[in-house]
UniProtKB/TrEMBL annotation, chains A, B:
The lineage of its organism: Bacteria, Bacillati, Chloroflexota, Chloroflexia, Chloroflexales. Proton pump that utilizes the energy of pyrophosphate hydrolysis as the driving force for proton movement across the membrane. Generates a proton motive force. Belongs to the H(+)-translocating pyrophosphatase (TC 3.A.10) family. K(+)-insensitive subfamily. This is K(+)-insensitive pyrophosphate-energized proton pump. The keyword NAD does not apply. The keyword Transcription regulation does not apply. Its EC number is 7.1.3.1. GO terms for cellular component: endomembrane system; plasma membrane. The chain crosses the membrane at residues 6-28, 65-84, 104-130, 150-168, 174-198, 259-280, 286-305, 326-346, 412-430, 436-456, 506-524, 555-574, 713-731, 737-754. HAMAP family: PPase_energized_pump. It catalyses: diphosphate + H2O + H(+)(in) = 2 phosphate + 2 H(+)(out). The record marks 501 as: Determinant of potassium independence. One of its GO terms (molecular function) is inorganic diphosphate phosphatase activity. It comes from Chloroflexus islandicus.
């Protein structure tokens, strides 16, 4: 930190303290929740099943992916030795050799740290959600506000842990690596994203396999109600809410939070370098890297304060208003504080204050709110799109499905326009920047927009986790037979939770795109940095990359292939859910044949259904993870760095479109069914309702598995590209090592796709037993 | 044609003669068909209804769009005066003034010619299909081969007319404009594509509105069989097959045929110019433009010969084998003849033969066959994907839908890989080309791949039209109560027709992408031509476009917006079908209430349902057409030519993915239902069958309206961009004329989207009458 001035040094330490405070606050609330009442013995019994299942899932998942993580840690460290160290690293660590060694260690450690933090957020988030569920149910007997408090606070643990750990990691890396931080930050981002991908995909498959499987065999075949204790998959379904909606979402948002910080810091260093170069004083200008850290710290404090206002009284009983109040107070505080921080941190040596970063951040806050409103418009029962889809159910499932598909596609268009507008805001803000630094400055602006979007992550995650927690509490309440007053409280919280959940999805996806665009910009800058260094060292026949020119046929091919990846990923995840659901169906059918079970005399073997879901989800993980890691490597080494740039652009584009399309279509179908259940178009059990149930089932894997999995996938692939780009540039074409590596990669990819496409034995079994299905 | 040598001149005249022969041959077969027997009075009665309805639709459509065509003709002519004439045009017409005038007239006339030809192909194709329907039904009483002959030959009329007119237009323009041909060819391509867009969208909405509407109210509500004469929409449904599947498809493929020729000629002139520049002899090298014309002529002759072999004997009764024989004979002939033509036409002044264009063409033929096989694999009942979707129907509609969605998404990935491979083939073929001409040469190779793909358009369209013709014949047979033998013949032809129809869709979409990629290349070249001319004339502050750099934020925004357009288009067309179907539902309900109608004593008012479908489809046309034309104009003038380039890349990418996804998902659902009807998984009327019917209905608008509409849309937008790009470059930013024009464009776009989104009164009416639906 040799280039920091006194204020900046102080600020970095202050940020570190704030991040630790955030983590401490999370554990403080956690202890508060654990002190609450856990209700009746029956409630504790159901809760016990869920707890065991959820923990079993996450530990199994940890074992599955830990091998991959260990291998990747070594590969990452080793890969550093192939490329020349950056000038920044040499400057930081004295010599080339020391730089290479430290970067290798730093990247590997950062990768481990990113993975572990991401995992910890998911694990603790899920754990506290499971603890919260039963206590919300218990508190609902006391009143509305007590239940709201427990539910929201349980969510806050995850929220505060997310922001605390995300900020801690980034700050620590910066403190150790200084101007060489980008080298290690890449590892940090990659670790977090990869784990998030696993948590999203695994959790998504788990929860929907259990959900769809339980419904198909219970409701459809056997004609018993949802959540009936005789259904062996009912606990797996409840566990699914926790591992999918809580752990998956928490890891996902943690990763977005982390990657926006990573991209802002990488671009901040490049911009500082460029500005310093223009100013010619030779010193790195580190204000561009300090500012995002300060913003994040402000966000953490604002969230903590805002969360105190989430309370309602027993007469009003308005959970939504309470959470919105908390959010808007936090937002207001954060904006004011950011504005106040600007003259302190965004000031150059001559004393000129640069307000543009503040406005870029502000545009991110606005973008988050705009995406909120957009998602709400397309997926809430209060607006015409969902009402139209409900209406379309009157003429059957087909028209319901068509209406939802059209709605999802359209919503995706508006979301991309809003995101485009926010990127364009940075273009406008930095239109006056000198040509030499304009490109980097605009991208830095985009990365600050990403920071702005996730400024209030503490609140956002609290609101999001609130959803599945209330949902599960309601499920426990139903199974434990709580009284009507308590159930009413939980029904209301559950409904509010559906809205908050949908809204967060919009932010998660939007931030993924913004982060990816910023990373994409650093891809270009990064590649050129390596090429420039090689040219400086006398390499011949190599030229700076002047653009990612999509008019060039090979780059266009990259674009086409990149655009196809989200389609492949979605197809495979949808199919994975069907496959896993089929296994559940077979298991529940088997248990139904156990004498005495249908009469309620024998308790079903819940653990076995949990075990099947767990194993099935794990099986799919590795192949999908391999696809995400292998495809960019193969494209990059086969078609070159420029085509790899085209490939990334393609992935971001269709990834965004498909993610929003699937999330909103699914959300709309879900709520179209709810709208009918509220008594419209014939109400529950009418023909339109049956039609809407079909739409809801179609939407389940789209909105909870394949759609959300695209967020971390976009970023994993972008980060892999960023890590391998210098190697592609450095290594000569036709190098035997590369050829061998390519053969291994292609083989791994083919295996992964084959693995994901195969028709499982379970599906065949179902096919052979159609008679029993009627 | 001052730069042509004797062989080349002769060749151009020969090509002209071949194109006229193709047209003549089409009319010759038509007269043969008209001479056939039209069957019983009852058959003629049904046929009469269809004929009247189909003609009414196309004349109404002609009136609707003729105003737009007239306006656009003038706008196109006027726009030429804004930009400086190309050096080629000046060279061809002597002076700048003369060049501008001639280009203005030429572009306007070519636009009219393109529109009229496209319309003529659609009109005649539909007309002969309607004439063919009843005669196939009549011939089926005589035997299998007679029926096959009539059906295939009816399709051949369209096929030969398509290739004849397409070739005629291109040749005439080249003869008149010589090296200035690209200026006029743009108009020709635009006219054809725009009409194709209208025919596809209008026909697609018509046919699916009638189909879905008739089914919903007839089969679902009233419980009467499909094609029951008491259903007022049944004739509209049969008319729909003709206006959608025949007229729409014919215009679409005509346009692809035309645009691939246009792009090959534009790039051929640029390449000839570049090669001549490198060789320094100052003369244009026109062989690159003659070769595609010759290839096309070879294709026409090969198709005529191949068609003679489409015959089967009464014992074998194998229509598919007969058509395949015709196709493969034509393909073999065409390849041999193209190889033979290469040493004659692809030879430079020094006598060196250039075989690379031949290989690029060959790769196109292979691509067509590969896409065929791929489409067949994903949509035919003989392979595992459709079987899996059928199997998924056992657990209900939801799993059937999910399986089809996953299948469609995955098929899209493989299709894009095949297309990428064929583009990469051109990259490899021209890897030895000198750097100065390599870029153009590769794109020229891509355009020849497009030519190769559509080399056998004569056969392809014959096979495609065969589908709806047999389908309609079967319908007439059913309504007229023909005997069992005749029905068996038609059932078989109908089934074969389903396969040929699906396969052609794959080629149409693939060729759209290849043509778009080639056009995309000419976009880049074209813009730079104008900029270079401006620099030569002393313009300051303007630079050559070195790339379409997607790493630049504004270009990335262009990419994002472009990628969103196919999603918007699909959403709007799906919704348009629902809206039009709702109107049909209301009308049929109304007529059911007429006393005596349900008892069969009163004939329903078929004309009224036809009229409603017609009007509804027309209503949607203008707004969707406006979107296609306005969006590139707005993006181009707001964000500039480079961002417009990013925009085009986005459209091609997601356009391809969404088109194949929707077409194949729809095709698979259709055949999954058929597979069950063949007696698998419970057969007709079983629960799995009901589930599969839902999938089929969902797939209908996807595969016949929104998916196919993307082909012409991609090209319309590309051509609009090509036409406006020089204007964007020429006009200074902030020009008041542009600002006014922008305001008009934005207003038109907003109106169009609002118009397409509005909830119709008919839908509201349906919503108010749920009780009668039960």
């Amino acid at each position: 930190m040799q280039d920091l001035n006194a204020v900046q040094s102080l600020a970095v330490w202050a940020v570190l303290v704030v991040s630790l405070l955030g983590i401490g606050y999370a554990f403080f609330i956690r202890s508060q929740i654990l002190a609450q009442d856990t209700g009746t013995p029956r409630m504790r019994e159901v809760w016990g099943y869920i707890k065991t299942g959820a923990n079993a899932y996450l530990s199994q998942q940890f074992r599955t992916i830990s091998i991959l993580i260990v291998i990747l840690t070594f590969v990452l460290a080793a890969s550093v030795f192939i490329i020349p160290p950056t000038t920044e690293a040499v400057e930081r660590f004295g010599s080339k050799e020391a730089a290479t060694l430290w970067v290798a260690i730093g990247r590997a450690v950062a990768f481990l740290m990113g993975s572990l933090f991401s995992y910890a957020v998911g694990f603790v988030g899920m754990n506290v959600a499971v603890e919260g569920n039963v206590r919300v149910a218990a508190a609902s007997r006391k009143g509305y506000n007590p239940a709201l408090q427990v539910a929201y606070k349980s969510g806050s643990v995850t929220g505060m842990l997310t922001v605390g750990l995300g900020l801690l990691g980034g700050t620590l890396i910066f403190m150790v690596f200084g101007i060489a931080a980008p080298d290690a930050l890449l590892g940090f981002g990659f670790g977090g994203s990869l784990i998030a991908l696993f948590m999203r995909v695994g959790g998504g498959i788990y929860t929907k396999a259990a959900d769809v499987g339980a419904d198909l065999v219970g409701k459809v075949e056997a004609g018993i109600p949802e959540d009936d204790p005789r259904n062996a998959a009912v606990i797996a379904d409840l566990v699914g809410d926790n591992v999918g909606d809580c752990a998956g979402m928490a890891a996902d948002v943690f990763e977005s939070f982390e990657v926006t910080l990573v991209s802002a810091m990488i671009l901040g260093i490049v911009l500082g370098d460029a500005v310093a170069g223009v100013m010619g004083d030779g010193q790195y200008d580190l204000r561009f890297i300090i500012f995002p850290l300060v913003l994040r710290a402000i966000g953490v404090i604002a969230s903590v304060i805002g969360n105190q206002f989430v309370t309602t009284d027993e007469r009003k009983r308005n959970a939504m208003a309470a959470m919105n109040r908390g959010f808007y107070i936090a937002a207001g505080l954060a904006i004011v504080a950011s504005a106040a921080a600007t003259p302190v941190f965004m000031v150059d040596a001559a004393g000129n204050v640069d307000w543009r970063p503040f406005f870029a951040t502000l545009s991110g806050v606005i973008l988050a709110i705009a995406l909120d409103k957009l998602t709400e418009y397309f997926t809430s029962t209060h607006f015409s799109p969902v009402k139209e889809t409900s209406k379309a159910s009157q003429t059957g499932s087909a028209t319901n499905i068509l209406s939802g598909l059209a709605l999802g596609m359209e919503s995706s268009v508006w979301a991309i326009l809003v995101i485009s507008a926010s990127i364009f805001t940075s273009v406008l803000i930095y239109s006056g920047e000198p040509a030499a630094t304009q490109f980097t400055a605009i991208l830095y602006g985009v990365s600050l927009t990403g920071i702005g979007m996730l400024l209030l992550t503490g609140n956002t995650i609290s609101m999001d986790s609130f959803g599945p927690i209330s949902d599960n509490a309601n499920g426990i309440g139903e199974m434990a037979g709580l009284d009507k007053n308590a159930r009413n409280v939980m029904d209301d919280l559950d409904a509010v939770g559906n809205t908050t959940k949908a809204v967060t999805k919009g932010i998660a996806i939007g931030s993924a795109v913004i982060a990816a665009v910023a990373l994409y910009g650093s891809y270009f800058t990064d590649v050129n940095k390596v090429i420039k260094q090689m040219i400086d060292e006398g390499a011949k026949g190599i030229e700076l990359l002047s653009s990612i020119n999509v008019a060039a046929p090979d780059v266009f091919i990259g674009l086409l292939i990149g655009g196809a990846v989200p389609f492949l990923f979605s197809a495979l995840t949808i199919r994975a859910v069907s496959r896993a659901a089929a296994q559940i169906v077979n298991e529940v059918r088997r248990q139904f044949r156990i004498p005495g079970l249908m009469e309620g005399k024998v308790v079903p073997d819940y653990a076995r259904a949990v075990q099947i879901s767990t194993t099935a989800a794990q099986k799919e993980l590795i192949s999908l993870g391999l696809i995400a890691v292998m495809v960019p490597i193969i494209v990059g080494f086969t078609l070159g760095v420029e085509a790899l740039g085209g490939f990334l652009a393609g992935i971001i584009l269709t990834g965004q479109l498909m993610a929003v399309f699937q999330a909103n279509a699914g959300g709309a179908w879900d709520n179209a069914k709810k709208y009918i259940e509220e008594g419209n178009f014939g109400g529950k059990h009418s023909e339109p309702h049956k039609a809407a149930v079909v739409g809801d089932t179609v939407g389940d894997p789209l909105k909870d598995t394949s759609g959300p999995a695209l967020n971390p996938m976009i970023k994993v692939i972008n980060l892999v590209a960023l890590i391998i780009a210098p190697i592609i540039v450095t290594i000569e074409p036709g190098n035997p090592g590369v050829i061998v590596a390519m053969i291994i990669c292609v083989a791994a990819l083919v295996w992964a796709i084959w693995q994901s496409k195969r028709e499982s034995e379970a599906l065949k079994e179902i096919a052979q037993a159609p008679a029993s299905a009627d």
